[in-house]
Amino acid sequence: MSVRGARALDWDDEVYAERPLEVGNNLVLEARLSWRLDRVAYDPAEPRLADAERDLARARGALDAEVTTLYYRWRRAEAAAAEATDDEGAALAGKQLDAEEAWSLLDARTGGWLARQACRP
User: pTM of the full predicted structure?
Assistant: First the structure.
């Protein structure tokens, strides 16, 4: 769609007149509407948009699966660290480190959401 407006002033100069006898003030408005008949039934951009939506849904599903896997990895590591006794020493430290690593990965994949939730009172 295109819209255009124009204003025109005109007058008729007489050879012996000191001023114009008549001044015309015209306002012209023009509107055009056009469409492409070849795109009424099929637009070449539609398949690209559908592909992008499908790729986004797949990426979202993959992220959900990864976050779920990391969550349960973190929970297992936390449970293993809680079951370890102080007698094991290095094994306890390793299990706590595994839990912290899993928590950090999970926090990173959720965009920091986990850390913000953990800081709430």
Answer: 0.54
Rounded-to-integer distance, Cα 1 and Cα 63, Å? 42
Percent composition of the chain: helix, strand, coil (DSSP 3-state, to 5): 60, 15, 25
Rounded CA separation 71/99 (Å): 10
- Backbone torsions φ then ψ of 27, nearest 5 degrees: -120, 125
- The pLDDT tens digits of the residues spanning 59-110 come to 999 999 999 999 999 999 888 888 877 666 778 888 888 889 989 999 898 8
**Tokens matching residue 117:** 């939730």
> pLDDT digit string (tens) for 90-103?
788 888 888 899 89
Q: Position 90: which residue type?
A: A
Neighbour count for residue 103 (Cβ, 10 Å): 20
73 CB-contact burial (10 Å; exposed 0-12 / middle 13-18 / buried 19+): middle
Rounded CA-CA distance 74/84 in Å is 15
